[in-house]
Amino acid sequence: MSFDQIDLERLNLLKSKIGEYPDFPKKGINFKDIFTAFRDGKVCAATKNLVLNYVKKNHPNIDAVVGLDARGFLFSFLIAAEMEIGCVPIRKKGKLPGKTEKVEYNLEYGTDIFEVQSDSIKPGQKVVIIDDLLATGGSLKAANELIKKCGGIVEANIVILELRSINGRKNLDVPVFSFIQYADE
Ligand SMILES: O=P(O)(O)OC[C@H]1O[C@H](OP(=O)(O)OP(=O)(O)O)[C@H](O)[C@@H]1O
Ligand SMILES: Nc1ncnc2[nH]cnc12
Q1: Where in the sequence is the domain holding 177, given as residue range(s)?
Q2: How many distinct structural domains can be found in the chain?
Q3: How far away, in angstroms, is 106 Cα from ligand 1 center?
Q4: Is 51 helix (H, G, I), strand (E, B) or coil?
Q5: Is 115 in the pocket of ligand 2 (CB under 6 A)?
Q6: What are the pocket residues of ligand 1 if the criterion is a CB atom closer than 6 Å to any ligand atom?
Q7: 29: CATH
Q8: Contact 64, 121 (CB under 8 A)
Q9: Number of helices (H) and strands (E), helices first, in the chain?
Q10: Atom of ligand 2 at shortest distance to CA of 31?
Q11: Phosphoribosyltransferase domain: from which residue to which, for each copy (predicted)?
């Protein structure tokens, strides 16, 4: 994937502003904080345009965009509003009303349960799933399973940041795209 000059500048601006917090939330984890970057309104605007351009160009025919709790929601609603398609949340357990599908998953620093409302995706609908960061891939793997349980088709997983050395993409059976990669964490 190649970006035009303006999107490349947006990408570099975002990358330069990502916060780094060693030993959070546990010793040995170098936490990448996208919210640090979003303190700057110019970075918010740049990120919005970068992500929208990418999804509109590469996934023009999706029916919905699925965001992961919690930082994936920052991006899923933006995309859905711009493309006039559905916005579907996958949330940590106990937060969603109605009938839900559930999957337990492993994280870089623990385990959790993800849920999606069973009727939020219609069988045959095409989606992309978006989140802020890919580490072990546990979250996105569980999300892919949940959407398949509902009968949806996952066209791709999209993340803003990817921790390449963990190689979480090996756990994902759909195409994965990341805007920014870190080689050595
Ligand atoms: O690739 P993985 O190893 O699954 O890790 C990535 C996930 O970890 C972080 O979320 P976290 O679970 O900390 O939840 P939060 O967004 O509620 O802070 C991050 O926002 C991703 O969702
Ligand atoms: N290193 C990290 N930084 C931010 N979010 C994460 N989720 C899992 N690992 C993470």
Answers
A1: 5-182
A2: 1
A3: 10
A4: helix
A5: no
A6: 68-71, 107-108, 131-139, 168
A7: 3.40.50.2020
A8: yes
A9: 5, 9
A10: 3
A11: 59-152
Atom of ligand 1 minimally distant from the CA of 163: 1
For residue range 124-168, list pLDDT tens digits in order: 999 999 999 999 999 999 999 999 999 999 999 999 999 999 999
Please tell me the distance between residue 12's alpha carbon and the centre of ligand 1 in angstroms: 23
Predicted confidence at residue 185, as pLDDT, reads 67
- Single pTM value for the model: 0.97
User: In this structure, is the dihedral angle defined by the CA atoms of residues 23, 27, 29 and 31, taken in order, positive or negative?
Assistant: negative
| Residue with CA closest to ligand 1 atom 9 | 133
Q: Which residues of the chain have pLDDT under 50?
A: none
Q: What integer pLDDT is reported at residue 109 of this predicted model?
A: 77
Distances (CA, A) of 96 to 59, 77, 78, 104, 120: 27, 17, 21, 15, 11
